[in-house]
Amino acid sequence: MAAAGPGIEIASIKHKYMRVLWILLFATTISPLAHAQESDSAFHAMDSVLPRLSHSHVIWHDIKEGVYDGGQYLTRPLHWSGKEWAIIGTTAGVTLMMEGADDQIARDFFQHNQGPFGSGLTWFTNNIYGTGYATGITFLSLYSIGLATDNSRLRIMGRQVLQSFAYAGITTTVLKVLFGRARPFSNEGPFNFHGFTIKDIWNSLPSGHCTVAAALSETLAADIDQPWAYVTFYGLEGLTVVGRLYADAHWLSDTFAGLIIGNVAGFWVSRETEHYDLQTNQPKSTSFLLMPTLNGFALSYNF
Predict the structure, then answer these.
(1) What is d(CA 32, CA 26) in angstroms, rounded to the nearest whole number?
(2) Fewer C-beta neighbours within 10 Å, C or N terminus of the chain?
(3) Between vectors from CA 190 to CA 185 and to CA 192, what angle results, nearest 5°?
(4) pTM for the whole structure
(5) What is the per-residue pLDDT for 289?
(6) Pick from 270, 170, 261, 172: nearest CA to 229
(7) Domains defined for the chain, CATH in brackets
């Protein structure tokens, strides 16, 4: 009988990682569900309201919350303090330092250490966790279960997963197009920037996979707020970085920038409060609100 080849070994590793994905999704769904009522009185109060509301009413509420948060996210730079601008400047500086000191070193290391084990190990993050598939599955699982079981905690977690994905994704996409950085496999070097372009080979900075992975990981870790969650999801972020470097798809500095964008979006979304009353779908407090309507958008001032 012929010995099993490397292709069979890689397929076996891929199958194991798919099983790991489903276990993680099960954990992120069932664990919060089991403790939702005891851990947060605000969510408990919201759950007592949900059974009296239609699913369409609740979905419309979540759409309005998402649009409002999106507007806040996009306009937030206009209100940054000096400290926040200093953080942005530091992040940019570290990225530039990596370009000069570490990018080529990291690429050489991973390209000289290729093999079946590495290919199998990084397949999960390159094809599932960093592509949006895991985000979509997690969003649909948490949101649909939360809606069906009148569990506000799970429903809001699901919504926030989608929000952080959208907000971080928009940020990274815009920067990719503006920078136009050549990917490593183009062999143009780490300092080749083409400026405004939509060509994928010149859309290296920031890493989209790392952005997506970090947004999902930070949102879930912050919402669950348990040690095992931080270890698990931050570990998946690190594995995503390894996967992109191993595939020669990004420079190290690309992955760093992607992690920052995704984690900031996830952290920010997970700490946003509800701006609309769940029963009336009207603004809660004195504020200007950009509200979606059936005919478009309306600017409302509530007092």
Answers:
(1) 10
(2) N
(3) 95
(4) 0.78
(5) 55
(6) 270
(7) 15-276 (1.20.144)
